[in-house]
Specification:
By secondary structure, the chain is mainly α. It contains 11 helices and 2 strands. The chain has 2 domains: 90 residues, Arc Repressor Mutant, subunit A, CATH 1.10.10.10; 148 residues, Four Helix Bundle (Hemerythrin (Met), subunit A), CATH 1.20.120.530. β1 and β2 form a beta hairpin. α3 crosses α4.
Length: 270
C-alpha cells in the first residue's frame, strides 16, 4: 500500500530521502491487548518526540514481539494511524518499504467524528500562535544545535519535493513548527506546540491560495536562516511574517479579520 494526498501526489514522507530508523522499542502490553493499545503506545511515542516525522518504525514482526501482540494487531493499529495521516505504510520488500511517521501531530480523536473548531475559535488559535511561536523561535535561536538546524532543513527539502502540491506542503508545516519547538530543548514548550498544532488540525482548513506552496517554502527557508543567525529581532520579524501566510489564507476564505484587533506587541511590522 502506498499513500497519496488524493490528487496523485506522493506524500512528503514517501519522497523524503534518508529516512531514519530512530531507536524505538515498543513496551509489552499487559493483559489482553487490542490494536487500540498499540495505537496508544505509538501515538504517545510520537507526542513525546521518541518518534518523529520521517522516522522508520521497527518491522511489523519486531513491533508485534515487543508489544506482545499478534502481527495482525500491529497491522490494524498501523492502518488506523495511516488512515489518520499519522503513519505511512510502504508495501513491498525493497529498502524503502516499511512503516514511516508521516506527521508529528496526532489528531485529538482518531475517530470519524472528530469535531471541527467553530469559525470564531479559529481566530483564537491564530492569535495564540502570535503570542507563542515568535518567542519559541527566538529561544530556539539561542539553543538550537547543528542537528536541530539540520532537521529544519530536512523538512524544508521534503516540502521542496512536493512544491507543486500546496496541501502536501501545508501538511508538512506542523513538523516544521514542532522542530522549532524541539530546538529549544524544553519539553513544556514542545507539549504546548503539540496542543496548538492539534487545534490547528481540528480547524477548518482554508482553501489554498495561489502560490501558497511556494510562499510557504520560501518563508520556511527564511525562518530557518533567521534561527541560524541567532538574531532575536530578525527571528521575530520573520516568524510574524511566517504566521501571516495561514492568516491570509483564512482571511481570503472567510472574508473576516482576526476577531480581536491585535495589540501592538502582537502586530507584525511597523
Amino acid at each position: 500500500m502506498t499513500t497519496s494526498d488524493g490528487n496523485g501526489h506522493e506524500s512528503g514522507a514517501r519522497r523524503l530521502e534518508g529516512a531514519r530508523t530512530r531507536p524505538f522499542a515498543g513496551e509489552k502490553i499487559a493483559g489482553r491487548a487490542t490494536h487500540h493499545d498499540v495505537v496508544a503506545q505509538l501515538t504517545s511515542a510520537i507526542q513525546l518526540g521518541k518518534l518523529r516525522f520521517g522516522d522508520r518504525l521497527p518491522s511489523e514482526r519486531a513491533l508485534a514481539e515487543q508489544c506482545g501482540v499478534s502481527r495482525a494487531t500491529v497491522r490494524k493499529a498501523s492502518q488506523v494511524l495511516a488512515d489518520a495521516a499519522v503513519l505511512e505504510i510502504r508495501s513491498g520488500h525493497g529498502p524503502n518499504s516499511g512503516i514511516y511517521v508521516r506527521s508529528d501531530v496526532v489528531p485529538a480523536s482518531l475517530g470519524p467524528s472528530a469535531q471541527e473548531l467553530p469559525l470564531e475559535e479559529i481566530a483564537g488559535v491564530l492569535e495564540a500562535r502570535r503570542v507563542l511561536e515568535p518567542r519559541v523561535a527566538q529561544l530556539a535561536g539561542f539553543l538550537a544545535t547543528p542537528d536541530d538546524l539540520a532537521e529544519l532543513e530536512r523538512i524544508i527539502e521534503a516540502q521542496r519535493q512536493v512544491a507543486d502540491d500546496t496541501m502536501s506542503v501545508r501538511g508538512l508545516d506542523a513538523s516544521f513548527h514542532l522542530a522549532i519547538a524541539r530546538a529549544t530543548h524544553n519539553a513544556t514548550l514542545v507539549a504546548l506546540m503539540q496542543t496548538l498544532q492539534q487545534r490547528l488540525k481540528l480547524a477548518r482548513h482554508p482553501l489554498p491560495l495561489a502560490e501558497e506552496g511556494r510562499l510557504t517554502i520560501e518563508i520556511h527557508e527564511r525562518t530557518a536562516h533567521a534561527i541560524a543567525t541567532r538574531d532575536p529581532d530578525l527571528i521575530e520579524a520573520t516568524m510574524l511574517e511566517h504566521l501571516a501566510v495561514l492568516e491570509d489564507a483564512w482571511r481570503h476564505q472567510t472574508g473576516r479579520e482576526v476577531i480581536r484587533r491585535a495589540p501592538d506587541f502582537l502586530a507584525a511590522g511597523p
